[in-house]
Amino acid sequence: MNDSIQLFTIGFTKKGAKTFFESLQNAGVKRLLDIRLNNVSQLAGFAKKADLEYFLKTICDIDYIHLLDLAPTKEIVDEYKKNKGDWQQYEVQFLELIRQRKIEDKVSPDLIDGACFLCSEASPNHCHRRLVAEYLNQQWGNVDIQHL
C-alpha cells in the first residue's frame, strides 16, 4: 500500500500550450493549484486565470483552484526584484511567510494528492512552487514531488 501524496509542479514560461497541457495530461494531474500572486497578467498568455480554467477543463478535464495562501506577498516579490534576484534572501523570507501562514493546516493532503502547483518560472530551482512542495513534504513526510 502506498500512502504517499503525489504532487506535481509546473511553470508555464518557455512552454507552448501543447507541451504544457500534454505534460499535465500525461502525468495524470487531477487539479491544477495556481499559486501565483498575479494570475491575470497579460504576460501570462494562455495561463491567464479565465483562459487557463477553460482550457484545463476542456482539454484535460482538470479542475482549477487559485490558492493565494501559497503565493508570495507583493512585498517579497518586489524586494526580490529590487535586489536583482537574491534567491537566498527570497527563500528565507518566503519560507518564513508560509511557516507563519501554517499552510500545512490550510491545505489538506487530499487536495494536494494528484494536484499540480502552477507558477510562471520555467524551472523549479528558483521558484516558490518548489519551496512550497518541499515545505509540505517536511511537514507531512510523505509527499512525492515531480517537477514537470
From TrEMBL:
InterPro entries linked to this entry: DUF488
Pfam families per record: DUF488
PANTHER family: BLR5642 PROTEIN (PTHR39337:SF1)
Protein name: DUF488 domain-containing protein
